């Protein structure tokens, strides 16, 4: 499985609900976690690998690997934080993105068990970033238009190299 990169139409489509969590779903989640390790990422969503289902995985240094299936963001804090983000689907490009400092998310794990998680800091940011992928939104969409254009231009230059 390879990461789909900026410009591919799949990244702009909304992912579909997973109707039944099965062994195949768990296998896909494990492959996604392997991709994170291989590509040195902190999160990857189904659409980034061409799997148009509502699933993403996270693995950040201070936390265990997590699988989120059919997630819903229940709450976001009013407090926001600006932090540099990048994306495996927009390699080599980084920008300051403002996101909620903390969130509450509900999802199912790869075993089909529901859970609710309150997260803050980097984990909250990664969850929001990956959730955006399920909605067809990229981190560059959170930037002011001129900044977004510069970032996309930089990406295109890097891609040609």
What does this structure look like?
It is built from three helices and seven strands, in the order H-E-E-E-E-E-E-E-H-H. The protein is of the alpha+beta class and 161 residues long. The chain starts with 22 loop residues before the first helix and ends with a helix. The strands form two sheets. Strands 1-2-3-6-7 form a five-stranded antiparallel β-sheet. The mean pLDDT is 95.
What do the pLDDT scores average to? Answer: 95
As residue ranges, the low-confidence spans are: none
CATH fold-level assignment: Peptide Deformylase
CATH class: Alpha Beta
Shape from CA axes? globular
Distance between the termini: 23 Å
User: From N to C, what is the helix and strand string?
Assistant: HEEEEEEEHH
Please provide the count of β strands: 7
Estimated helix fraction: 25-40%
Helix/strand layout:
Blueprint lengths: L22 H17 L3 E3 L9 E4 L7 E11 L3 E8 L2 E11 L1 E7 L5 E7 H14 L10 H16 L1
Antiparallel strand pairs: 1-2, 2-3, 3-6, 4-5, 6-7
In short:
The chain has 161 residues and is of the alpha+beta class. It is built from three helices and seven strands, in the order αβββββββαα. It has one domain: Peptide deformylase (Peptide Deformylase, Alpha-Beta Complex).
